[in-house]
Hints:
The chain is about 40% helix and about 15% strand. By secondary structure, it is of the alpha/beta class. It has two domains: about 5-245 and about 340-355, TIM Barrel, CATH 3.20.20; about 250-320, no CATH class. Helix 2 packs parallel to helix 3 (about 90-100). The two termini are about 15 Å apart. The structure holds flavin mononucleotide. Flavin mononucleotide binds near residues 134, 162, 234, 329 and 331.
Amino acid sequence: xxxxxxxxxxxxxxxxxxxxxxxxxxxxxxxxxxxxxxxxxxxxxxxxxxxxxxxxxxxxxxxxxxxxxxxxxxxxxxxxxxxxxxxxxxxxxxxxxxxxxxxxxxxxxxxxxxxxxxxxxxxxxxxxxxxxxxxxxxxxxxxxxxxxxxxxxxxxxxxxxxxxxxxxxxxxxxxxxxxxxxxxxxxxxxxxxxxxxxxxxxxxxxxxxxxxxxxxxxxxxxxxxxxxxxxxxxxxxxxxxxxxxxxxxxxxxxxxxxxxxxxxxxxxxxxxxxxxxxxxxxxxxxxxxxxxxxxxxxxxxxxxxxxxxxxxxxxxxxxxxxxxxxxxxxxxxxxxxxxxxxxxxxxxxxxxxxxxxx
Length: 358
Ligand SMILES: Cc1cc2nc3c(=O)[nH]c(=O)nc-3n(C[C@H](O)[C@H](O)[C@H](O)COP(=O)(O)O)c2cc1C
């Protein structure tokens, strides 16, 4: 069974962080209670607060603390509770410190290279929190490991390798995604495993690797484990669970999506992403730009005066179930998701399948 630095999960499954508001304490706690790692997305957790647009930092950090507390309560000592924090967000350092201090078991960072992550945690009180980058290439893994080694004398506690079939922001060029030129996840995983070896030797540790993006069945879990992964990170399938923190309307939209409804979008975060074709994206294609009505300064590189649209507004509309105005991130497998399940049923199904195979 997966053990990361002495911490035990009974399942080799991480539920991927999903922002805004899709994976909060309810979903993350339920996954942890079953023995996996449940992950809260720190992206604008305070979106329901009255003062969110006036004081996003206060609203987000307060709600992040509350969601971690809720997840830990639901987990009741089983599994692990992680927080996903995007490097590209302007509140990244404060969210890291809040997550560590609130007692999260793990901090997982993507959407940029978390080169300074161990330094940010050193200032928080919880120094035992597990630290993991999300990478989409061997080169990114090497860059992060070298920096953590040189500047902080440590290696990552585990690594998530995210391939081109994932939902949300993607660490590939738009052309690679559109032309099907991105490397297969299995190949990227092998490259990352090779890059981690010198650091495993230096620090006399194993760095577990979890693969993400398009993992759907227990057969997939078994295949990746047989190919050298310690486990998988799955996100899209968890949307169709009763415990997912999004609105029922959001879940209905995802359940009704067909494989051909998926497209690659450009995000103000500066990376491409995968989302459902929707009225918002049609309007954007026709108009070129939908000027933001207000701004919470959420993304470091976003220029409100020229951004094609406000991603925070679009993701908040989505999680609340507004089909007309929402941006609906999804993995490439969304069209295969047909049934609402409880988290324990989904995990049982996956685990029955992979245990039978292995
Ligand atoms: C709705 C949605 C929102 C997501 N939000 C985030 C996020 O806030 N931060 C992040 O690092 N990854 C995010 N992701 C990526 C997932 O955590 C995960 O790695 C990926 O989707 C796995 O592929 P799968 O959805 O095919 O299982 C998101 C994915 C989805 C579907």
